[in-house]
Amino acid sequence: MSQMQNVERQLREMILGLEIGPGERLTERWVESRFGASRTPVRAALLRLETEGLICRDGRGWTVSPINLAELEQIAVYREAVEVAALRLTCTLQDRSAVEIIEGMLDSCDDKTPREEWHRVGMDFHIELARLSGNEFLFRAVRDAMTRLSRARWLEVRDEAALGRAWAEHHAILSAVRAGDADSAARLLSAHIIGSRDRLVTSLRNDRRGLRARGFAVVA
Amino acid sequence: MSQMQNVERQLREMILGLEIGPGERLTERWVESRFGASRTPVRAALLRLETEGLICRDGRGWTVSPINLAELEQIAVYREAVEVAALRLTCTLQDRSAVEIIEGMLDSCDDKTPREEWHRVGMDFHIELARLSGNEFLFRAVRDAMTRLSRARWLEVRDEAALGRAWAEHHAILSAVRAGDADSAARLLSAHIIGSRDRLVTSLRNDRRGLRARGFAVVA
DNA sequence: GATCCCATTCTGGGATACCAAATTGGTATC
DNA sequence: GATACCAATTTGGTATCCCAGAATGGGATC
């Protein structure tokens, strides 16, 4: 694997895992020494992460993208459009047996499953559901949107009830898809996305001071 | 303006203007000498164009992305999802006076307008319409999709009637938006996008041999 | 003590040198 | 004439060096 891919992957994981906080400054030299690569692959990796929205330019330098509440709301609208479109497309397919795999993914989580795993499965549910549509662009759009939402979802304070609620909503959506009921599935998915957005933004808005105290930039 | 942006912009224009044909091989050294920049900005520019889908990796090297008919069909589905979502969003806005600007854009084209300008305005119509929604992600999605479609639309054989038809459809969509009739606008836009797709793919499929004879790679 | 200014440091942007792998072209062999 | 093989060349990947401009910090001045 090339140095560029190495740096890109590791840096992405550090950012998504909040090991580098939203709003923190980055210098190419720091990344260079941190991962033992030279500046050429480092710069290539930074350029790629910039297009993913994980880092952004800050004048001449680089900054880990802050959590942006207005952006989170816009992403939810975007997600709703592409995810519902993908879902409707999937409902028109003859062979929808792949929903079983996603169902199995959900069922692999139980009370003993660590929070981190719930988080990952919750994201993968949406990504894999979009992949079923067979449309590469809808799939990528959902995957990229989930990447952008990832850190915020991780910061969200979620109780057991909220996790169970999401789990139930995911299952309900799959049931509708399996039945081929596109309208119901779409309605459930829309409600799920918008509901999640509202809880997410509310949670972050309430915790804004605490998050800032932890050194995380949360804007708008 | 930086060298990277220079190379990126000029190379993008060469690719979109078909000065470099779909499927042609690119070497970093050629780009380097062609634009008088060194490899560092050239590589940065290539990485960015790769994320735009205008070039793609070909083993170790670079290739100008071929025209991919299957991809064009998928993009149309993607476009339909995001453009309709943006349109519906726009219809909910109080102030939709900006549609007048787009209308003026359309009306700036007449019989004497060169074909190239019709082409550009046809793309900008969709991009600017999406921008009105105020949702940055829907807007970018449409802009990126139009960029990916650009070369294919340019290759399409379109007669006067087809151009006039698109013009009329664009106007009908704007009228519905101005009236705030989201459902009608959405229906018209969907039909327009899918109709355009069918004509585009049919045209390219028929011309496939001719296009290949001109050195343009057209796959699937 | 506050403020202005200048030298130093640091940063990203660019250019270039080097390397390993892959491609290529030609030649020798069958 | 086809094919196998080897050397020269070319390629992208990487490391490193240089530069101009921005940021920084300390000291002089008021």
Tell me what you see in this structure:
Two copies of one chain form a homodimer. Chain A has ten helices and five strands. Chain A has helices at 3-16, 28-35, 39-52, 69-92, 99-107, 115-132, 136-155, 160-179, 182-206, 208-213; strands at residues 25-26, 55-58, 61-64, 67-68, 218-219. With 220 residues, chain A is mainly alpha-helical. In chain A, the strands form two sheets. Chain A has a three-stranded antiparallel β-sheet with strand order 1-3-2. In chain A, strands 4-5 form a two-stranded parallel sheet. Chain A has two domains: 3-65, Arc Repressor Mutant, subunit A (Orthogonal Bundle); 69-206, Up-down Bundle (Four Helix Bundle (Hemerythrin (Met), subunit A)), CATH 1.20.120. Chain A binds chain B through residues 40, 43-44, 47-48, 51, 71, 74-75, 77-78, 80-82, 84-85, 89, 135-138, 141, 145, and chain B through 40, 43-44, 47-48, 51, 71, 74-75, 77-78, 80-82, 84-86, 89, 135-138, 141, 145. The structure holds a DNA duplex (30 and 30 nucleotides).
Count of folded domains of chain A: 2
CATH architecture of the largest domain in chain A: Up-down Bundle
CATH topology category name of the largest domain in chain A: Four Helix Bundle (Hemerythrin (Met), subunit A)
| Sheet/helix structural class of chain A | mainly alpha
Strand tally of chain A, please? Answer: 5
Biggest sheet character of chain A: 3 strands, antiparallel
- The percent range for helix content of chain A is over 70%
Mean pLDDT of chain A: 95
